[in-house]
Amino acid sequence: MSDGRAARSFASLAIGETVARGLAFVALLVVARRLGPAMYGVIGVASGVMLYLNQVADGGIELSGVPAIARLRDGIQGLVSAALTVRVTIALALTLVVAVSGVFLLEQPDGAILALYSLGLVFVATSTRWVFLGMQQSGWVAAARVLGDLTALAIVVLAVHDVGDVAMVPIAAVLALALSAIVMFAGLSRLGIKPAVTLRWDQSRALFARSPHLVGFTLLGLVLFNADLIYLRVISGQAAAGYYAAAYTFIAFAANLSVTWAHSVMPSLARLERHDASRDEAYASAMLLAVLVSLPVAVGGMITSAPLIQLVFGSDYLPAVAALAWLLPAIPIAAAREIAIVGLIGSVGGERQLIRINAMCAAFNVAILIPVVPRFGMIGAAAVTVATEAVRLAIALRYASQHGYALPSPRRVVRPVAAAGIMAAGLVFLGERPLFVLVAAGGLLYLVGLVITGVVRVGVGDARRIVV
After folding, report:
1. Which residue, of 84, 222, 238, 311, has the greatest Cβ tally within 10 A?
2. pLDDT at 204 over 60
3. Contact call for residues 467 and 444 (beta carbons, < 8 A)
4. Is the C-alpha dihedral spanning 242, 17, 58, 157 positive or negative?
5. In sequence order, what are the residues at sequence separation of 6 or more whose Cβ sits closer than 8 angstroms to the Cβ of residue 178?
6. Burial code of 160-171, b = ≥16 C-beta within 10 A, e = fewer?
7. What is the mean pLDDT of the segment spanning 289-309?
């Protein structure tokens, strides 16, 4: 990509997000092993519900704020202050409603766990991640995420030992959010931005004008993200939800990295004009790089899903193997789709099309889930998820093309697919081996495939490069 700042911003953000997601993954692993599938299912469903509530507390600013800050030259402090004031007000009211409902109205222990998680909504509202990403100053975001997730991991390791300690899981999550918010506020001060409480609604009205569409888009996206888990919990019980949540942990990890990459690209796309040829190249290169990295993860993971589940979650979670194998193709599909999505976010009127994408796909997803899950269980839920992701990608690409974003040529896409095929054939030939051997062999085979197909050109000096 031609924008050096975008590359540097992504590098720091990607490293921080990868480390943070790794810490969060280890924390989930500890929780899963110490609480067992049934209680892990309760945590998974409560966390899934919180994703919806977090988006309401965010007010769509995590999406609309990045291109707005990227374009803004003056008045950033006033905009940030006004936006945070509105968000915190919404979050406090939402926390009260959720906490009371969780304790007095919902089934237990699910309700109590949800009530504890809801205490973190105010820290979601005070997050200033969108400001740093818009300014392409992602170092503070990375540091905040790492410190927060490291704190959560420490609390989980020290305080969660059996099902009686389940309340410490949401408490750890809330404390992690609080620490992350504090660190990012410190970063804003270093940049000369000092947010304050303000009633100047006019300063953030334009930002929130896009919120209903963007919040609706995100909420519908979450239906696509975890309706399968929630419905499976209702139909098949806590244990099935726990197995599926374990399988989906890998998918969520990869999906979050895809979103991170896409958001780091967003400022560059927002700054470039529609008819600028460099915008098409930035868009195509970002999409191809996303596929290039995610494709071997999906293909290799499908082949090694059994030893992967055994190593990470233990033998109690072996029923999750089939679900993981069926879910993994969603990773490269979602990675490509996220680039089209941020292109629409940065385009005038794109938020309305985002709503249409997720509304159509949510209806498609739910209509298929309802009859499929009772009959096919976890595998049915996973297959529906992948099918829905494919439909979302097709529609997102179509809408992005209406805003002038040209698709990468098929030839550029086929080459990494062929490299992944070489890797898959080699792994099948190797058969059953220790997981670390298969991972190392898969990485080497994929690299060889990239060289053979011309994606990676080996030479000396400037001749050694990746061609996407």
Report:
1. 84
2. yes
3. no
4. positive
5. 120, 123
6. beeeebbebbbb
7. 91
Bridge partners (DSSP) of residue 456 are: 466
At residue 466, the 3 state secondary structure works out as strand
Whether the predicted pLDDT of 243 surpasses 60: yes
SS3 128: coil
* pLDDT over threshold 80, residue 2: no
pLDDT at 325 over 90: yes
Distances (CA, A) of 52 to 38, 112, 222, 327: 22, 17, 7, 22
Q: In the numeric block, which tokens belong to residue 173?
A: 């999550």
Q: How far apart are CA 349 and CA 422, in angstroms?
A: 42
Q: pLDDT digits over 351-406, tens only?
A: 678 888 888 888 898 899 999 999 999 999 999 999 999 999 999 998 888 887 87
As a whole number, mean pLDDT of residues 209-215 equals 71
Domain positions in the chain: 1-209, 210-408
**Cβ–Cβ under 8 Å, residues 134 and 70:** yes
| The model scores a pTM over 0.85 | no
Per-residue DSSP letter, 449: H
CB atoms near residue 271 (< 10 Å): 17
Pairing, β 456-457 against β 465-466: antiparallel
- Helix (H/G/I), strand (E/B), else coil: 457: strand
